[in-house]
Amino acid sequence: MVEETTQETPATEEVKADAPEQKASETNEEGLMPESEKPVEGNAPIPEGLDEEIFDTETRTLKEAAVVERLKQKEEDIAKWKKQANDMRRKLAKGVEAPEKMEAYAENYVPEERYEFIMDDNETTEGKHIHEVLGTLDKFAFDHGLSVETAKDLKNLYMKYAEDVQIIDGRSEEEKAEAKAKYIAEQKKLLGDDADQILKANRKFTEDYGLWSDEERKYLLKEMDKSAVANSVWQKVRKLFGQNASDDIPVRGVSVSGLPDDRTLADEYYNDNTSDARRLEILQLRIDAGRTGGLPSPR
Question: What pLDDT was estimated at residue 137?
């Protein structure tokens, strides 16, 4: 029997070169698959990220009790890591130990005397706002491991800012009274020499005239107390109503729709030297200007 031999030609060598290489991971030198890639029972690998402690290779399902225990352990680990991080922050906060509980920041905060009143205010909008911001600062201080003293400095800075932008008023009663008196004097000066009479007449008109509801009347009176501008506007409103609510209102010759105020018109109307034709003209001008009611009584 003649033994057949195969002689490799350049062509067969080229075919070998083009053939895909066998992956090293498929078998090792002994022709066996590496342990890490061996399929488990059932001829399927364990899904990535799982292990035999929490994955049943026979039923191909998760072990519920084992998964719950694993998650519980993870939560404990995360809590431990957070505590370690917070402890480190506290140690680095100016070398001063930070409190263990966030409530300690509020318990140890005593504001400057001028701001003490706001600490007991949980009803007004301003009080609620201040307490909300202070609580936010407590959380910030705790999360960043700040000392109680550092947190106090932050709060004092905020309280000063809140006063500067008029969220709160930390002035004493004497300071408030002095500032109010100064403001009133400045506003009266803007109204002129008849300021007291103007303010009195404006208030009387608002209180007596039946057009307003109680809520509207309170609002108008409140606005009148604020500035000379509000009272100047109110003078013009009274003139549009013919000044019937208060005939003794002092005026300063301010015109409405180009027509002199009713007090000025009344003085001309009742003047002995005014002709009947002019009197009729005055009445017609008032009608054209939309004024209701009669002229003020003669002086």
Answer: 92
Q: Identify the CA nearest to 262 among candidates 234, 236, 281, 280.
A: 236
pTM, 2 dp? 0.37
Report the C-alpha gap between 198 and 204 in whole angstroms: 10
Over residues 32-41, the mean pLDDT reads: 50
pLDDT (tens digit per residue) in 7-24 = 555 554 554 445 445 444
